[in-house]
TrEMBL record:
It comes from Naganishia liquefaciens. InterPro entries: DHBP_synth_RibB-like_a/b_dom, Sua5-like_dom, Sua5/YwlC_C, Sua5_C, TC-AMP_synthase_SUA5. Residues 43-256 form the YrdC-like domain. SUPFAM superfamilies: YrdC/RibB (SSF55821). Keywords: ATP-binding, Cytoplasm, Nucleotide-binding, Nucleotidyltransferase, Transferase, tRNA processing. This is Threonylcarbamoyl-AMP synthase. Residues 293-320 have a biased composition (Polar residues).
Amino acid sequence: MSSARLVPVLPCPEPEAIAFAPSSGCGHSLEDPQIARISPTTHEHLRIAARHLRASRLVAFPTETVYGLGANTLDPVATAKVYALKGRPSDNPLIVHVSSLRMLRSLIPESETISDLYLALIDAFWPGPLTLLFPARNPPRPPPAPQTIGIRLPSHPLARALITEANLPISAPSANSSGRPSPTEAAHVFADLGRKGAEPVIDAEGKVVDEVGMLGCILDAGPCAVGVESTVVDGTQWSAEAARPRVLKVLRPGGVGVEEIENVVAALDEKLGFTGAQKTSVWVYGRDPPAASSRTTASPTMVHSPIPQRQSCVSSSTPAEIHNPTTPGMKYKHYSPSIPVYLLYPTDRFPTNPLQDQTATAPAKLEQVWRHVADQLVAARLDGAIAEGDASSKSGCSRKRLRFGVMAFDNSSLRHALKFTTHAVSPAQRIQVQDVENDTEIETEIKTLGCTEEDAARALFRDMLAFEGTFGVATDEAAASRLRQASSSAGVDAILIEACLEKGVGLAVMERVNKAVGGGGTGKGLGVRDVQEAQKRFWVDVSP
Ligand code: TXA
Ligand code: MG
């Protein structure tokens, strides 16, 4: 059995009280900012974290997007631990977090100058949730592995202060086991990695090389403000001078909306006097590239849902990644809770059927949807795909009783259709649906996605994890044990999420939701096999 030791959680309250001062001199304000004000406790905790980083250990820390699992970028022993602790595929590169442009320049070739395009994006979005690809100074692996390095300067004051204090670039993926929803609170990290991260590190000969474990500490500064990961863009081929077409590829949608990026790009084109074919095209993951001469504005399009994409306007010899720019990480199953996830498109927000490949073109009434989901869960159960008494199937998924967790917007018609009134915004409201045909009682628990796409982004991973029956704050073994007991009664049998428009951060929300729906679960015999093949997206008639 593993040791009962747990990774320490170090509180760093009121991160907004941390202040930064631009370095003296007349350069860019992000050239080399220093910590100007920080509370003594937080500073002490950052020193501890920095010592762990220098000792080749990992540190979990908050960013404005999600919590990151950080390692010293310059230390291959440390970065290898990131892959080991997460169970991350080795071909998926890590984003490097910097605290200054000086640090950024130390990571890219000395001959490389930061392009006008990147300077405009940095001015608009840094510090913040935008990752830029640069040519790498020392590519870690030969081609076809990426010869680029993804870098961002996060806006979370604690993240910036940690990098500044350690004076090291920090490579950090989201601080979760590979494939799981990303953590937006320290407690999520603790529940996932708090035990595993404290197991002594053992070398090939079985000798203990580090008593402390791979993960030195978790810095806790409360929930993340954005809630989904950064937007990853590739402008490495863009040049102000060269005659070749100017392209910025959005590889992964995230915290910075595509529309915001397009506005910055349009302003830059205008400033530089680019017209017609000289203008920069913004290509977006899951969307065809627009013709070079006519940039289209971002219209809400489905990223993963099985909608026939617009006819391509590029020649068939265009490489696949040009049609569908993406990161290595996007091909992996991601964001999946351990229970099936369903997506609901209410007819008032999606007046035409967004699910064009589905045979049924008529929208389904909510009762039909509930019955359909119940049938799938019960069928999967009878097939043995969902084991009776499965730890994650809290109600036992019996014919008699099912529990659905619904994530819906505050004022939505879907919520009204659930007989839920707008003014009663308690975080969880239970309703009972009697499914006569199935002889099943369905208990529905509702959590709010708030009112906007930004609210939904903050709620998404947190509430997926909560519906799974995971997590409160557990900073010691006793609390962890209490939580394990509590979670055995808290989970639901299926999560149903109301779709949002793919605008702003909504594009990232829908990309994450569609991944969770498609994946169906991360294993553990949870009905994944059968339910993932079944219809899991519904166009819902919410007319009264
Ligand atoms: O907001 C975020 O980006 C969070 C926080 C912790 O900063 N980090 C994060 O890391 O989401 P991760 O590892 O979960 O996702 C990184 C994504 C992956 O899809 C990866 O393939 C892509 O960025 N990526 C990283 N370096 C890349 C490169 N050189 N070329 C192409 N894609 C890259
Ligand atoms: Mg991740």
